[in-house]
Write a structure and sequence with these properties.
Keywords: Signal. The chain has about 700 residues and is mostly beta strands. About 15% of the residues lie in helices and about 40% in strands. The N and C termini lie far apart (about 95 Å). About 50% of the residues are buried.
Length: about 700
């Protein structure tokens, strides 16, 4: 009897422990995995193995250990032929999520820039991963592994690892959301090992020189200022390079300071257990206005980074990374010239008129030339000069600006004088004339609108918005709203959309910058993209150029992350002494596209017409779109946006079958019946993108 009872107890215990063990073994769903898409999947003994074609007859291979307490990345390999090389092993993804509070009251809700989040209470939390279950899904040419679940204070979600066919590239993302309102976030991330096997750590310093240091497992972590936002770890047989999305990871600031956005070493921030490499944010930013990232309730914030595998040396490993951003420069396109706008470098007031030594080639000119920017439109005298006079002082400042722009321009680079006047119209705005114009932002009672000056020729006194519009018309200048719907333009252009000056063709429209930032969005700069649609539905033919809105410009800065550029349809670059009318015509007529640099639109026509032109539909209401695209990161989608004067319509063309470093001509038809306008956007997997100006549709 006792023996039978003992056997029963043992049997029950065996059943209990077996069930407990089975409950702790994560399940892996493979229902959405397509074996025909190029990748292989195996799951046995708690190891989930993904093998994907990595280009050049290579295969990447990642073995994910789903057992609790074990490093997630058991092995990372790169295979060519029959030779497999171990890149890294026994690594865990690490995320630190810092949560603060957004000011949604004092300005335009989530669009506010004038916020100082780190001056309010905030906390940093380690993101914890519980390997409860996983799904593997094929999305076009990508394989996505989703592992549940993640938790960090009020945020929760899943870990997503995406492998890209055609490249030894993968992305690691903590996809998390919260129901709490007013959340502002930043994150640090990386790959960490408790028993690191790397030999050395490498990066490229801000002087563009490769740096390498031995890996010492006990060394306390260090934050490093790097170029190309990348850091690499070398193992016995290969190199793993880690880097963020080149623009999305950098929330808007006034300064593009290099704030040491990478790290390596042991016990990072005294919160990460182990030795690792990764990316980071400085919580204090540039110590001016520091808005962090928006995290509205219910949005899926992608805290992510990319990894690139290589079996070559460090130089080649970094060369592969630099290709994604064309070496942090803007490539030449036949029939186009690049133009960037809105820089408060204050070279005139801080150097020239401060009687400091004037360099033959200032740093800011060197920076722009290296980046491949053909034309730079300045925004000097931003609260530093005398826009309202005294007259002679104002004219002296303008003369110095014009002379330095002339001196620093050449056959391959044009420096355009410009200001952010912030007078007369309301809000902040910029202006550009087709030649140097002397004007003073005040006009005393009885003073002449214009007069001839013995030294400077014709000068203007501007006293109100009517005078300003008259000046723009007389000198054929353009004006546009700077940082629309945020900063000092929080209520504009909406506030003056019915004013004569705004309806004039001399008021071009507005300027675009990815501000604010939201890691849940697959695109950048929604604020002004929405404004484009609104202006179109107002029935006005307005255009939107990109702006950088930055202050200090030096070679050591992280300029590329904060930059954008306009590709104007120009066959040649005007000289400083020529009329700049071709530039203004391209801007005003919408003959350009805007990009972060990685996605290019060298050709776009709708029914044979270019942006800014009016197209005619046939009786079917269909239009034929032809779009030539070039890209570096794999593409995500193209979107056709149109409107009828009331509503906005969106049609998405999926591009998830694309691979890295490609080009394609898309030809397709779209229904535009009863629409008044249409435009296009194109975005890649890192939220880099390009967008066109509007096409107008004849009634």
């Amino acid at each position: 009897m006792i023996h039978m009872r003992s056997c029963l107890i043992i049997s029950l215990l065996l059943v209990y422990y077996t069930n407990t063990l089975l409950a702790q073994t994560p399940t892996v769903s493979r229902q959405k995995f397509d074996k025909k898409a190029g990748a292989d999947l195996n799951y046995r003994n708690d190891i989930l193995e993904i093998k994907w074609p990595a280009g050049d007859n290579r295969y990447g291979q990642v073995e994910l250990n789903m057992q609790a307490g074990k490093p997630l990345f058991s092995r990372i390999l790169l295979t060519k032929g029959k030779v497999s090389k171990l890149i890294s092993s026994n690594l865990d993804p690490s995320f630190l999520l810092t949560i603060g509070k957004r000011d949604l009251v004092s300005q335009n809700g989530w669009n506010i820039f004038f916020d100082k989040v780190p001056q309010k209470p905030y906390n940093t939390h380690e993101v914890k991963l519980e390997k409860s279950d996983a799904t593997v899904e094929t999305i076009g040419s990508r394989t996505v592994v989703k592992i549940s679940s993640l938790k960090a204070d009020r945020f929760s979600g899943d870990l997503e690892i995406t492998f890209y066919n055609g490249s030894p590239l993968f992305n690691v993302a903590a996809v998390m959301s919260t129901n709490a309102d007013s959340s502002a976030i930043v994150y640090d991330a990386g790959l960490v090992s408790r028993e690191p096997e790397w030999k050395s750590i490498s990066w490229i310093n801000t002087a563009d020189s490769l740096q390498t240091t031995d890996m010492i497992a006990t060394d306390t972590s260090k934050n490093v200022a790097v170029k190309y936002r990348s850091i690499a770890a070398k193992g016995k047989e290969g190199i793993l390079t880690l880097f963020p999305a080149p623009h999305q990871y950098f929330y808007p600031l006034d300064e593009a300071f290099n704030l040491k956005f990478t790290w390596y070493g042991n016990n990072y921030r005294k919160m990460v257990d182990g030795y690792g490499i990764g990316i980071r944010q400085d919580l204090q930013g540039d110590k001016r206005f520091v808005p962090w990232f928006n995290a509205p309730p219910g949005t899926k914030q992608r805290l992510n980074f990319f990894c690139m595998l290589s079996t070559e040396d460090e130089d080649n490993a970094f060369a592969a990374i630099k290709k994604f951003t064309h070496n942090d420069a803007y490539v030449k396109l036949p029939g186009y010239k690049t133009m960037s706008s809105h820089f408060h470098n204050e070279f005139i007031m801080n150097v020239v008129l401060a009687n400091k030594p004037i360099p033959e080639v200032p740093d800011f000119v060197t920076v722009f030339k290296r980046m491949g920017v053909d034309m730079v439109h300045l925004a000097e005298f931003h609260y530093t000069a005398h826009p309202k006079g005294p007259d002679e002082q104002r004219l002296k400042e303008l003369h110095a600006l014009f002379e330095q722009c002339k001196r620093l321009s050449d056959d391959r680079f044009l420096l355009l004088p410009g200001e952010e006047p912030n007078e007369f119209f309301g809000g902040h705005w910029l202006a550009l004339f087709p030649k140097p114009v002397y004007w003073i932002m005040s006009r005393e009672n009885g003073a002449a609108y214009s007069e001839n000056h013995p030294s400077y020729g014709k000068i203007y006194h501007i006293g109100d918005k009517k005078d300003m519009l008259k000046l723009l018309e007389q000198e054929q200048g353009l004006a546009w709203t700077a940082h629309a719907r945020t900063k000092g333009s929080v209520n504009t252009p909406d506030l003056y959309k019915n004013e004569d000056f705004f309806k004039s063709d001399r008021f071009m429209g507005a300027a675009w910058k990815p501000m604010p930032a939201d890691l849940s969005s697959p695109r950048l700069g929604k604020r002004v993209l929405d404004l484009m649609d609104d202006m179109n539905n107002w029935g006005l033919k307005k255009t939107v150029i990109a702006e950088a809105d930055l202050f200090t410009i030096t070679p050591a800065n992280e300029m590329y992350a904060h930059m954008n550029v306009n590709y104007l349809m120009l066959d040649s670059l005007p000289k400083f002494t020529d009329s700049w009318d071709p530039i203004l015509n391209s801007m005003q007529k919408g003959r350009f596209f805007t990009t972060t640099g990685e996605v290019l639109m060298p050709r776009l026509t709708i029914n044979g017409k270019h942006s800014g032109e009016t197209i005619t539909l046939d009786n079917s209401g269909m239009a034929t779109i032809e779009l030539a695209l070039n890209w570096t990161f794999p593409m995500n989608f193209v979107e056709v946006i149109s409107g009828d004067g009331q509503q906005v319509y969106r049609e998405r063309i999926d591009l998830t079958k694309t691979e890295a470093f490609g080009s394609q001509v898309l030809r397709f038809k779209t229904k535009l019946e009863k629409r008044a306008w249409v435009r296009l956007e194109a975005w890649d997997v890192a939220a880099n993108g390009a967008f066109s100006q509007s096409f107008y549709i004849a009634e």
